[in-house]
Design goal:
This protein is mostly helical. The chain has helices at about 10-20, 30-35, 50-65, 75-85, 100-110, 115-125; strands at about 40-45, 45. It has six helices and two strands; from the N terminus they run H-H-E-E-H-H-H-H. Strands 1-2 form a two-stranded antiparallel ribbon.
Amino acid sequence: MTEVRYIQIDEILAIARAVNGTEHSVRDMGLLVSAIERPRTNVFGAELYPTLHEKAAALLHSVARNHALIDGNKRTAWLAMRVFLRLNGVSASTVPPPVSIAGPFVEEVAQDNIDVPAIAKRLSAWFPVS
C-alpha cells in the first residue's frame, strides 16, 4: 500500500462544523482524537487495519461510536470516512449508496451491530480504489 493520508484533527473539526452548522460541536476532544487515530493502530509492529477499507471502517466505527460530538456523530463519521477514502484513491466520481441504504448501515455501525471487518467488506464494494 502506498503512503496513507490520514484525517487530521482540523479536517474532522471542519467536517463536524459542516454537519452541525456550528463551531461548538465537540463534547470530548480526547475521544475525537482517539477516533481519528484508530486507523493507524499498530500491535507489536503490525498494522491492526492493514487495508485501506479496514482503516476507513475503523474510522467510521470509532467516530460513530465514540460520541465525541454533541450532535452529528453518525453523519460526521460517514463524511469523514468518505473524505478519507477520497484522499487515498477512491475516485470523486464514485457514487455512494443512497441514503436509504447508507443511513441504516451507519445506524448499525453506531449501535455496534456490525464489526470492522464486515464494515470494510461493505465499504470495499461501495467505494473501490481506482
